[in-house]
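Run: sequence + adenosine-5'-triphosphate -> complex structure.
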Amino acid sequence: MLQVKNIQCQYEGISVVDDVSFHVNDGDICSLLGPSGCGKTTILRAIAGFQPITMGTVTLRGNCLSELGKMITPEQRSIGMVFQDYALFPHLNVFDNIRFGLSKQSNHAQQRKVKQLLELVRLEGVENRYPHELSGGQQQRVALARALAPSPDLLLMDEPFSNLDAELRKRLSLEVRDILKELGISAILVTHDQLEAFAFSDHIGLLYNGKLQQWDTPFNLYHEPSNRLVADFIGEGSFLPGVIGTELNTVTTELGTLMGNRAYAWPPGTPVEVLLRPDDIVLSDFGGISATIEKKVFSGSATLYTLRLPTGSHVEALLPSHRDFVINEVVKINTEADHLIAFGREALHSGEHKPRSS
Ligand SMILES: Nc1ncnc2c1ncn2[C@@H]1O[C@H](COP(=O)(O)OP(=O)(O)OP(=O)(O)O)[C@@H](O)[C@H]1O
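>> structure
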């Protein structure tokens, strides 16, 4: 339903979004993820109609909204927007804030719609309060209801949960996802919080320096990063040196010969680095490689350990926290990595794609 094709955006002649393309299907919930300044908000503003584009097109349901020299106004786009600071009208109560976008409808239709939305976002009973009389989470729900009131085709959300504490943030983002899924509304969320993007989205676009590095499902972004930049940015993990083995799909490393779920295009003996996620490393009761606990970070049900291997290389392991290892303790480990991603060592730090034969 939304197609963003080869768009470029500039500020004062300098390109900050370059050749970005993706599409959003009906009912799809997506996120734009990336470090500060990578261009997420600029892309969202280009879709909303606040930011001109200097190349490419933005098309919604087949209608071109933006191209070079053309920008349909935000009000004519059938796109709702929720901002980081909620942008509620301080002089209007909750009911009137939500009703704001419905001015073209009859009074009766407005009343009915606002009541439905109050129920949907679970704010019945506070409709007469003013924004300053609401908690952050309640204000965010009002902002959501107001953006949903005109039944937009697409909802855009710019860091909508970032002013909330961690617990509320998590709960509200899942609630909002449920509401959007219930209504079948497509949405794009801008966030720099990857766990939020993982939990919220069907698809995620990872941006770096104004370029889209990968548009994929959260699972693939984590397990099948398309280049080194994505692998570095997403999740925890370590890169272990190895060489392509003689057997198909294998890489020989100091943790043994690892077998992945793909055929590598490099010839045997090519030096590579393999990406090992913390959940790829398991404790081994029989045999295995000795590793020394160097650091540990407790996170409730699991502990993230940094382990030093005999050669001095490091890997990370996420282990159930009921077994509590101490710093400098030596443990035996093995790998269980189905998605064995390798990068050519010559491509390190260049962000170059890994060769794949299939
Ligand atoms: N009005 C402006 N004038 C000039 N440069 C701008 C303007 N707005 C943003 N930029 C620059 O454009 C680039 C992209 O900014 P953008 O706000 O899209 O990034 P972002 O990924 O949303 O960042 P953040 O996560 O920090 O909000 C940045 O380098 C930023 O400094």
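>> summary
The radius of gyration is 24 Å. Residues 11-12, 16, 34, 36-42, 192 surround adenosine-5'-triphosphate (CB under 6 Å).
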